[in-house]
């Protein structure tokens, strides 16, 4: 399994703009064969912070994901609202 | 740094009961010398899922945290509402 957390500090007040396209992006990603989890979270005490927690069967499944048109479209959408982004892998349990 | 993500699937409808004591728990944890981050997140499309993302200077800082009365009190509080809990370490960036 290939699992990671992406922590996005959004430009003030833009978090919900990003999330406005989340359902569509999540449906498309979750429909991909190697997608185990593709979940988004909002910080309880920082309205400008989001985390994406993604689990993929393996690196190849994630590479496939990154080549999809829906992925590049969603990244192009949310990237414009970033102030900072940190990518960290997770030691997947089990 | 010692960083991890705790994914909690709450019993239906109990997420906000857990979060009702979050501010107090977060203030106490963040006041500890080795605490780098102690952030809680709610899932955007699953009202019964929470993640805690914690960053500690090192294992000893986290061990100290776990021995504090405010920590054991908060864990005892939220544990009663769990359906499932997964603990996974994060490869902290930088």
Description:
Two copies of one chain form a homodimer. With 94 residues, chain A is α+β, with helices and mostly antiparallel strands. The first copy, chain A, has a single domain (2-46, 60-86), classed as Alpha-Beta Plaits. The first copy, chain A, is 35% helix and 37% strand. Chain A has four helices and four strands. The first copy, chain A, has a four-stranded antiparallel β-sheet with strand order 2-3-1-4, covered by helices on one side. The first copy, chain A, is globular and about 35 Å long. The interface between A and B is medium-sized, with 27 and 27 residues. β2 (35-43) of chain A pairs antiparallel with β2 (35-43) of chain B, so a sheet runs across the interface.
Brief summary of the model shown:
Chains A, B: InterPro entries: ABM_dom, AI-2_Isomerase_LsrG, Dimeric_a/b-barrel. The structure is a homodimer of 94-residue chains. With 94 residues, chain A is an alpha+beta fold.
Relative strand content of chain A: 35-45%
Distance between the termini of chain A: 10 Å
Q: In CATH's first tier, which class of chain A applies?
A: Alpha Beta
CA-based shape of chain A: globular
Rg of chain A, nearest Å: 13 Å
């Amino acid at each position: 399994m290939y699992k990671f957390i992406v922590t996005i500090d959004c430009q003030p007040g833009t978090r919900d703009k990003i999330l406005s396209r989340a359902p569509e992006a999540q449906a498309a990603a979750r429909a991909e064969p190697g997608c185990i989890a593709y979940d988004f979270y909002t910080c309880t005490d920082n309205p400008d912070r989001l985390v994406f927690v993604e689990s993929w069967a393996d690196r190849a499944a994630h590479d496939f994901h990154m080549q999809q048109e829906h992925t590049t479209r969603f990244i192009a959408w949310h990237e414009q609202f970033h102030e900072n982004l940190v990518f960290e892998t997770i030691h997947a349990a089990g």
